[in-house]
Amino acid sequence: MAIxxxxxxxxxxxxxxAFRIYDAADLDNNDIGDACVNSLSxxxxxxxxxxxxxxxxxxxxxxxxxxxxxxxxxxCPGRLRRWFKTVSKDCAGKSLGSSGTVPQQxxxxxxAGWN
Length: 115
Description:
The chain is mainly alpha-helical and about 120 residues long. The protein has one domain (about 1-115). It has helices spanning about 1-15, 35-40, 65-70, 75-90, 105-115. Keywords: Signal.
């Protein structure tokens, strides 16, 4: 079990970097404008583990101090906030697809899961 925890910690450290919620090419069929597309497809410079927070669900303790420290460290909170605010501004009044999804929905899920 201890070895597994070390592998998980190593994987989390290697997950540092950035990720995107949307790829610009996937947004081509939406009439949302270039500014909105650019905002939605911007890199979010946070540990890639938090991308899993796009799925709704209860987020209890991670039960791993190293993982918690890595996720909460650095500039991630500001990066998430900036992405959400920029998308909210650049995509105001717009929706995605026929379902009418709010553009900042998945970023909002990540933000809620991170908090």
